[in-house]
Design a protein that fits this description.
There is one protein chain. The chain contains 11 helices and 17 strands. The chain folds into 2 domains: 271 residues, Spore Coat Polysaccharide Biosynthesis Protein SpsA, Chain A, CATH 3.90.550; 79 residues, no CATH class. A hairpin with a 2-residue loop joins strand 7 and strand 8. It is globular, with a radius of gyration of 21 Å. By secondary structure, the protein is α/β, with parallel strands linked by helices.
Length: 354
């Protein structure tokens, strides 16, 4: 099985730590290792270095090489421009040619606490896919709270079991529901957070991209035909730049009729906002990293450094993030909206803060 780790995103909801020049996958948010390093090491030793590929934007390829001296430069796939997951996947397929092996595709910036259980779930998913090559299989995490920033999958009928894992047909997908609906999903026990971890055969996904994203498919075929030939770089730049920026879930997976789900309990978290990061780092009401002193303050997150003192008086339900050039103050209930600051900065042409 070949593995594609997607590492080209910008992580705007974790601004100002996650910045354009060094987004969250290259940050040490959870431990003394970057999120990307955590992700790759989670795959070892089940997968060899030869079978692990990292897709990233060309401006981050040097950072990936620096992070992974163990990885061959041929296993780093640099997108000429950012065009979302369908485009990144087609570039991966073009590079590997007509591979007969199943693919595992996953994000580079998620937290999974139980590595052993995760690998066991992947082994069960691989067994299922080899027996059912017309299926796409997704991993789903049991929701612990009604998160409105995530996608949910409802399980349908039971298909089979592999080892200790039950595998269900998916009933439907729901992306980022409102709070009322998310609460209903958590209570029902039939819904799972979509971890964006997928296994499938490349020939199957190629057929679905042709069906559901035909313009991208045509450009992908041109790139595939030009691979390893003179003039490839020009073809790649021209065709990739014209690809539509579409997500894999929205365009393909949610429209395909044979998608299965394996519910897992692996300590998964998206780390998609400051509130989620805080909950992942600590179970207590408040979390402090850096130099902080407070009076009559609770239910806060302070993420700073030792060089600047943060002092709080009578503050509650806040996130305070301090960098060399930015201070973010955010209501914890609105941490999903931080990416809106990026749009304002872009509009005001304050690109040095992005």
């Amino acid at each position: 099985m070949k593995v594609l780790v997607l590492a080209g995103g910008r992580g705007t909801r974790l601004w100002p730590i996650s910045r354009k020049h060094k987004p969250k996958q290259f940050q040490k948010l959870i431990s003394d290792k970057t999120m990307l390093r955590e992700t790759v090491e989670r795959l070892l030793p089940k997968f060899s270095w030869e079978d692990i590929f990292i897709s990233t934007n060309k401006e981050y390829s040097r950072e990936v090489k620096k992070e992974f001296p163990e990885l061959s430069k041929d296993n780093i796939i640099a997108e000429p421009v950012s065009r979302e997951r369908v485009a990144a996947l087609t570039l991966f397929m073009a590079k590997l040619g007509d591979s007969a092996e199943p693919f595992l595709v996953l994000p580079s910036d998620h937290l999974i606490k139980n590595k052993r259980e995760f690998q066991k779930a992947l082994s069960s998913a691989e067994k299922f896919i080899k027996k059912n090559p017309q299926h796409i299989i997704a991993l789903g995490a049991k929701p612990s709270f009604p998160d409105t920033g995530l996608g949910y999958i409802k399980k349908g009928k039971l298909l089979t079991s592999e080892n200790s894992y039950k595998i269900y047909q998916t009933a439907f997908f729901k992306e980022k529901p409102n709070l009322r609906r998310a609460r209903t999903y958590v209570r029902s026990k039939d819904y799972f957070w979509n971890m964006a971890v997928y296994l499938f055969y490349p020939s199957l996904i190629e057929e679905q991209i042709k069906k559901f994203v035909p313009d991208n498919y045509k450009r992908y075929m041109k790139i595939k035909e030009a691979m390893s030939k003179p003039g490839f770089t020009k073809v790649l730049q021209e065709e990739y730049d014209k690809m539509d920026s579409v997500g894999l879930e929205y365009s393909v997976i949610e429209n395909y009729e044979k998608v299965a789900i394996i519910p897992v309990d692996v300590g998964w978290s998206d780390i998609g906002s400051w509130t989620v990061l805080k909950n992942s780092l600590s179970s207590s009401e408040s979390f402090v990293k850096g130099n902080y002193i407070g009076i009559n303050s609770d239910d806060i997150m302070v993420y700073g450094s030792s060089s600047k003192l943060v002092a709080g008086v009578g503050i509650k339900n806040l996130v305070v993030v301090v960098t060399n050039d930015i201070i973010l103050i955010c209501d914890k209930d609105h941490s999903q909206d931080v990416k809106g600051i990026i749009k304002k900065l872009e509009k005001q042409k304050k690109f040095n803060y992005i």
